[in-house]
């Protein structure tokens, strides 16, 4: 038997149960991994809560790192004992998980288990945001909401590496300092009395930004739209505050012919070649020292419910990780 964290029904963190689960076996093209650490992500909370349709019960989690314990038929690129990470391995909140060999990523030398578990989803997401959803050009200015969150910190570093400028929003002075350490050019606190769009325009001599990267969703969508230059891009990649309600698409026209996208990682790494290319930039950045992953909090696997509460309460900075 193995141990894992199971969502028994749709609901809040209280539906998560740490329990014994059947030990998985790798099929053709798959590997069995002894998990060292698992990443905690908003997609896990969406699947637990029912925002994303799922079958229940199911073992939660998709991201992690560990050592290969067994290989299935047809797997030739990996061997027992190899250290790997993955961005898509359903059931990763467990002591053992089966992962498709096509989704495996090689962990850079010397990287801790916590960082290795943090790199795949946040690293790959930030990479596609800055290179594909809106390809940053030298001199571009980007608005990044939740600048001290896991994706926000990584995205800021990648934008700066590509020659862009970064304005971030955060909720506390402590988070503002973390955002500045990541390279943000301007940081300001948002709240009910703060006009985000007006502040952004003040910081850009009235012009606005080329792109707004918005993973917060409902609470920031209108401000993101109002912060853009004509022909700017609003990249909505998450809904930490809730999903954006339906809106009149003519607003994009009246706001300056805005480009709106709602990307997802699954489409950005749909082929092994695309996954390898994006991971190469992320892992190279870590190896060369220009890309850092901040571990905000770690929880034992058995305390996954507390990890979800911390993440959904937006009390965390950087990455939340479960250790096995």
From TrEMBL:
SUPFAM superfamilies cross-referenced by the UniProt entry: GroES-like (SSF50129), NAD(P)-binding Rossmann-fold domains (SSF51735)
CDD domains: QOR2
The Enoyl reductase (ER) domain, residue ranges: 11-322
GO molecular function annotations of the record: mRNA 3'-UTR AU-rich region binding; NADPH binding; quinone reductase (NADPH) activity; zinc ion binding
Keyword rRNA processing listed: no
Keyword vocabulary terms for this entry: NADP, Oxidoreductase
Keyword Repeat: no
Residues in coiled coil: none
One GO CC annotation: cytosol
Alphabetical list of Gene3D superfamilies matching this protein: Medium-chain alcohol dehydrogenases, catalytic domain (3.90.180.10), NAD(P)-binding Rossmann-like Domain (3.40.50.720)
Entry protein name: Zn-dependent oxidoreductase
Species assigned in the record: Brevibacterium casei S18
């Amino acid at each position: 038997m193995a141990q894992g964290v199971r969502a028994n029904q749709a609901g809040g963190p209280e539906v998560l149960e740490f329990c014994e689960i059947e030990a998985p076996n790798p099929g053709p093209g798959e590997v069995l991994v002894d998990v060292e650490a698992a990443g905690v992500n908003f997609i896990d909370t969406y699947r637990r809560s029912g925002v994303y349709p799922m079958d229940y019960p199911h073992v939660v989690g998709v991201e992690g790192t560990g050592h290969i314990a067994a290989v299935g038929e047809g797997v030739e690129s990996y061997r027992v004992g190899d250290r790997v990470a993955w961005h898509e391995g359903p059931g990763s909140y467990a002591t053992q998980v089966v992962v498709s060999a096509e989704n495996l990523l090689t962990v850079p030398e010397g990287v801790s288990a916590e960082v290795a578990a943090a790199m795949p989803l946040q690293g790959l997401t930030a990479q596609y945001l800055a290179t594909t959803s809106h390809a940053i050009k030298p001199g571009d200015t980007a608005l990044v909401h939740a600048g001290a969150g896991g994706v926000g910190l990584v995205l800021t570093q990648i934008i700066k590496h590509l020659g862009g400028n970064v304005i971030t929003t955060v909720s506390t002075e402590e988070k503002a300092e973390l955002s500045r350490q990541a390279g943000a050019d301007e940081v300001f606190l948002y709240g009910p009395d703060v006009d985000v769009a007006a502040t952004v325009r003040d910081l850009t001599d009235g012009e606005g930004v080329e792109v707004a990267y918005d993973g917060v969703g409902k609470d920031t969508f209108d401000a993101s739209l109002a912060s853009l230059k004509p022909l700017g891009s609003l990249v909505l990649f998450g809904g930490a505050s809730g999903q954006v309600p339906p809106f009149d698409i003519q607003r994009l026209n009246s706001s300056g012919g805005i480009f709106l996208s709602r990307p997802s990682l699954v489409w950005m790494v749909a082929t092994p070649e695309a996954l390898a290319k994006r991971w190469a930039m992320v892992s190279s950045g870590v190896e060369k020292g220009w890309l850092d992953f901040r571990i905000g909090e770690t929880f034992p696997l058995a305390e996954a419910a507390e990890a979800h509460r911390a993440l959904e309460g937006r009390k965390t900075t950087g990455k939340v990780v479960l250790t096995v």
